[in-house]
Amino acid sequence: KQGNTFYRIVRLRFFKDEPVSLESSYIPCSIAPDIISFDMRTDSLAGLLEKEYGHRIAKATEFLYPRISDEYQSELLEIENHSPVFQTERQTKNTDDVTIEYRISIIRGDKVKFSTDLY
User: Fold this and answer.
1) Residue 3 confidence class, pLDDT cut points 50, 70, 90
2) Do 31 and 53 touch, CB atoms closer than 8 A?
3) Residue-level pLDDT at 110
């Protein structure tokens, strides 16, 4: 909504000491007023939202796009500039159907495999 303020939490994710994704999470300040005071290296964002603020995740919708990395992403992910990457966009809602996180992730195309279960 227009006029809302958000925290932007940027995290670089590693697997076996290699960077694999760059995540930017947007959390409404109104639902987690001081979330940036927690140590994101040791606390999971989902865990904090539930444990500290009472927002249990009910569902998330995620979209996947092929992209080419920019200079900033390439440097952090330790890949060549303009490398193939995946971009995911996720909207996470709580049990009251309120959006508690919007996340954009840039994921190395050479290190990650996606799968989907359809029911």
Assistant:
1) low
2) yes
3) 93
